[in-house]
């Protein structure tokens, strides 16, 4: 539907020499004393102590003092790493190159995002036609002194006169919606607050959006977000006059979102109880007073509309099709028995389907690599889009009248290239290449398949410098996610150049819980199958050691969010297997995650400690609750941020405090708490600083030296 790097100097070889004994055998750190409280919860007869419960109140003065003390210890440690400043300069140099989005059309204008290199935020540009002169439309870097205000265009009016944009600050998920007139670049008076996870679906002289009630003062970043509603905002009105379109007073913990057909005939309503599984409703906007009518009910499957074909709907769904399919539905007879299959389920997983230029573009994954096929609306194959290599491609968006589409191709060693696709000729040509001096021939990318604990074959990408010796001595950085049906496909990250040019092996494991092989793969790693994900990751580490890529003294593991949970669980289950661990913004307290902001939405993935059977499963692997006294844990740098209102920092606070209490040995176990940042770095400056500290911590604790 409508809403739906730097210039590198010539690479040179850097010799790695073991650090002197003095550097490896670091002096034991003195950590801040973290007070304990007498808090014990009873879960179905099991008493669970929570002595650091007080750290959940991140606005309290004693918590702020604890954060300052922890950051002082952490940054004192990092500042004493002798090569940290040179590493910071190298990371900065590597990141300093122009980065573009694909252009997208609105009437006679094309929009795109561009970051010159070290700008904290990408700037929104506009130009008339593809050959027009780009002009700044919105520059978010001018909106805050620290560069932490982000801007996104989230919906255009049908006549392309207006655009709604969202504004967020300091990395928070909260958004403000504003409106600009495109031709004049004039910002209108419209200003909507307390929205998140929403687009702007324009209809007539306004737009539909999702919003929450204003949270209590002081609880904006922690309180549970309840009773999301659908509103209609009329252009020029204050927010308090917005019309309530849909609410559900009986179910406070459900997401609601809307989308609109291209010609504004139909409004679609999505309702979900969490991060997967949704109900789908619609209303015909030409019928006055019509209520939303059900299309697909129940929360077992995922379905979304692609386009309407007259009065019928093309829908992407995994209903009775774990690898997904596209069906044509008559809304007057929406039962499954009346569906017409347009794109049948295949062996490869259909990760997405969208309509553009009157065609249907279907994106598949084959062993985590992208394949894209063009079909007509009857499902007939027109052609396969050919890519230059194995990797990831995304794009092919546009309205029905489009003749030119754009897509991006990238891989681990291929910086993003934007292609222009001509629908009439079916030919692609390079539209914009990344201005980055990087020779992929210097590096090797391979995909291997290894066995997990239960014999399941798991794919893993391995990237390293050409000529690598498999002698078990190579520093290795193992990354994974493993959850929420998310697929980790080949992508280019300029920061990885720092690893690769320093002889580090970079590995990405495609664990169960992700979406690489469809819904069966996802469900094999969720709820009571979650241990499979940890087993898959542990097996990846064991494979890298067995095949002599690395050793347990040269292996770092990393993951963020659900991946932070992954690292936390694996370092508690197998602390002997890794030298360094990077649990970032992780879900560490599996018994209380659902009590903050939108954590309730993850219960469909994890289960909830409010249910006895789920409690036993969650308690068995919850990182916070499985740290043991007297164990020597890997050198650990926990990372979080003060404005993370998705996975609140209390998770990391409590995990770090417990780790420092129970850990034995000289490996440092530290927490780095970023300010004015959220669930991911809120600016380029903060991204560079965090990456520098992460790499410096890893290199130093592995006894590595750099040649900068």
Physical arrangement of strands within the biggest beta sheet:
32-33-35-34-36-37-38-39
The quaternary organization reads as: single chain
Number of strands: 39
Distance between the termini: 49 Å
- Gyration radius, rounded: 25 Å
Mean residue pLDDT: 95
Q: Choose one word for the global shape.
A: globular
User: Any idea of the CATH topology of the domain at 21-93 and 438-587 and 630-701?
Assistant: Rossmann fold
CATH superfamily of the domain at 21-93 and 438-587 and 630-701: Alpha/Beta hydrolase fold, catalytic domain
**Which spans have pLDDT < 50 for at least 5 consecutive residues?**
4-24
CATH architecture classification of the domain at 21-93 and 438-587 and 630-701: 3-Layer(aba) Sandwich
CATH class category label of the domain at 21-93 and 438-587 and 630-701:
Alpha Beta
Structural commentary:
The chain is an alpha+beta fold and 708 residues long. It has a domain at 21-93 and 438-587 and 630-701: 3-Layer(aba) Sandwich (Rossmann fold), CATH 3.40.50.1820. It contains 11 helices and 39 strands.
Topology:
Elements: H1 21-24, E1 40-43, E2 46-49, H2 61-79, H3 84-95, E3 99-100, E4 104-106, E5 109-115, E6 123-128, E7 135-138, E8 149-156, E9 162-169, E10 175-181, E11 186-195, E12 201-203, E13 206-211, E14 229-234, E15 243-246, E16 255-260, E17 266-272, E18 278-284, E19 293-296, E20 303-309, E21 312-317, E22 325-329, E23 340-343, E24 349-356, E25 359-366, E26 369-375, E27 381-385, E28 392-395, E29 404-411, E30 414-422, E31 427-432, E32 443-451, E33 457-465, E34 476-479, H4 496-501, E35 505-509, H5 519-523, H6 530-546, E36 555-560, H7 562-573, E37 580-584, H8 603-606, H9 612-621, E38 635-641, H10 650-662, E39 669-674, H11 684-701
Parallel strand pairs: 34-35, 34-36, 36-37, 37-38, 38-39
Antiparallel strand pairs: 1-2, 3-5, 4-5, 5-6, 6-7, 8-9, 9-10, 10-11, 12-13, 13-14, 14-15, 16-17, 17-18, 18-19, 20-21, 21-22, 22-23, 24-25, 25-26, 26-27, 28-29, 29-30, 30-31, 32-33, 33-35
Helix pairs in contact: 3-11, 6-7
